[in-house]
What we know:
Number of strands: 17
Order of helices and strands: EHEEHEHEEEEHEHEHEEHEHEEEHEH
CATH class of the domain at 283-394: Alpha Beta
Bound molecules: zinc ion
CATH superfamily of the domain at 283-394: NAD(P)-binding Rossmann-like Domain
Amino acid sequence: MAVHVPACPSCGCTSSRTWAPGSVSLPVASNMLCFDAAAARQVPRGELVLLFCGSCSLTWNGAFEEERLDYVPGYENSLHHSPAFSRYAAALARALVATFDLERGLAVEVGCGRGDFLRELVGAGCARAVGFDPSLPGIRIEDRLELYDRRAGVTDIEGARLVLARHVLEHVSDPVTFVTTLSSTGAGMYLEVPRAEYMFDAGSFWDLVYEHVTYFSAPALRALTRKVGYRVRELRPSFGGQFLSLFAVPGTTHRPAGPRHAGEVARLAAQFDAFGAAFATTVAHWSAQLTRMAEAGPVVAWGAGSKGATFLNLVPGSDLVAACVDVNPLKQGCYVPGTGHAIFAPAELASIKPSTVLVMNPNYLDEIAAVLRQSGLTPRLVPVLDGPGQAALAG
Length: 395
Ligand SMILES: [Zn+2]
């Protein structure tokens, strides 16, 4: 009988290592809007079996089944309701307009959601911005901003100066074909993905999500860019280190990957192993913390996006969390997939009077503190972040 050797979906190499915890079960759509608590608890779940490529350092879910996911209306993952995220997006739009000379050109975004970032680009001076998104019907918003269904006229993107995909690459099971398609435009390219190094360093298992087939590190993203005949102009951590931002242009580099790449991959392999080894301890740490916090009074989790959903789904005893809070109005009144936690608007927190607020993303700590102050609430704020070994220290 033939033994199946998993090949890296990016570089094709078959020397992979497996994540120590083995299989983890999560809802297949962590950002699906659920309008009923009982139905939310019954959503379909899928398995994650993480593999790490010893050649390019890509991490991927070897158990991912693409046919289980469908990005239909009702899939809601906009972050633009947060002031901190809006500041980040505005600065990025300005950088893209300057880098790719968009004041005189067209930018094309693949996976544009409702077009929040296309609006940022136009606001920053981009002459024309066009987007595609499978979860949207074709809509037209304003003069210089056109959104099309992906089946609509692709010829409209001819002559684009920039093609960009923010938080899309990690959702596709064939990243090579996807990036090759982007590069076939001959335009400048901007890719943004969650940064695997951050997840490994922080031990942040709540950054795992079924919808993400891949978890790119800097060396893995660099290798893929080179593979499609593009040159990395800039590759850096962004958004408090949680994202990787890649600016690339057509043209190959003739330098081989070399010993620096091999050293980076070896270091990342060790971090991947450490992340796996710490998983059970970190989950147990947060489970014990929830018990302690709940003894002091109501606990709420701020952030009902994928981090919040994964945390609540994987930490035993998360039913001790009274509710979730989210600034995205579309999520308010809905329930967390997999656990059924109710999602409140910040203004509704006064009715719960939480004694502890778990902050699912530390990047939003300041704005959450400000909202709570304005509401006259003074709960203890606990950011969910684990520097290396933090679980052991706090245990
Ligand atoms: Zn690889």
